[in-house]
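User: I'm writing a tutorial on reading structure tokens. Could you give me a worked example: one chain, its sequence, then its tokens, then a sentence or two explaining what the tokens reveal?
Assistant: Sure. Here is the example chain.
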Amino acid sequence: MPLYLLKYQIWKYKFQKLAFTVQAVISYIEFILWAKITKLKNPKDQLVGILLAEHLGDIVAAEPIIEAIKKKYPQSKICWIAKKQFHILLQNHPKIDFLLEEKNIYTSTLLTKKNPFDVFYNLHINGTRNQPFYNPIFFNPASEATHLTVENYYHSHNLLQIFSKYAQLEIVNDQPQLYVEKVPVHLPFKGDYWVIHTKSNQTSREWKDEKWQELIPKLLDQYPIHIIEIGMKNGIVCKNPKFHSLVGNLSLLESIEVIKNAKFFIGIDSGPSHIANAFQIPALLILGKYENFNSYMPFSGAYQKGEIAKIYFNQLQSAAEHSVEEIFTAIEQTYLKQPVSLV
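And here are its predicted structure tokens:
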């Protein structure tokens, strides 16, 4: 590389790091000023900060933490810090008093080191977030103190139990709830439908597209239903007229509304599965060996109890390796055992 290009890349990196740092520090100062003003307005209340900026499934799974904190600190005002795109999951919650935006991950690093809250909980698992320009990667002391990190967190805990330990609360296995506004969704058919979600932010958690393509027609032949696929991108290709891909065509609120009214949900370990759990939709979840976890339980509440849902595992296989026949049989057994009122 010519010397002038090398110098350009070095200066570009320095400028980007400076801009990133300045944005983080400004946002950090805004948090401090906001907290001071809030305390002046409510001097008798404890200001409790919860930092769980992402992801979709984690935020939904952590919802029962709010009630537990309210019980521990009856005179508290709860502030949740999250990325803007996830605010709709929290903004209507009756026990969240303030919702602030994480604009920069380094701001959260600064808040974890020194924050203006009376009580502050960082609920992120060490090893699951990366921040540019600064090492080490985003660090949560509570993750280290409890010895629950990305290498072992699923060995004996679900997500809610992990968050409870980080928050020094009694381990809770309560049912997550979602408080979101109702939005109109116009579907291209009338009648009952099932929802599928096929993609994760980690491909190692997914079932193979060709297996979905084989499964969907079998289900449509067997049951008097329509099937809707939701998601952001890379949907399943299926020409059956009772299959409807809404991938990339729904907002998060619209996707939630579609899940909420489904008769059955088929998915993988992903955010929409946690939404289906929050609404207690009967389901079959396709999971498998993941990283160094032969089996694991992401869910609390209805899906952990197993009365309306089956978490399908084969400890010797990843999710992708399950056969179509295995999954079809598991769906049949799970769906047919539901009370008539649910199906």
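What the tokens reveal: Strands lie at 46-51, 76-82, 98-101, 119-122, 193-197, 226-230, 243-245, 264-267, 283-286, 309-312. The chain has two domains: 3-166, 193-336.
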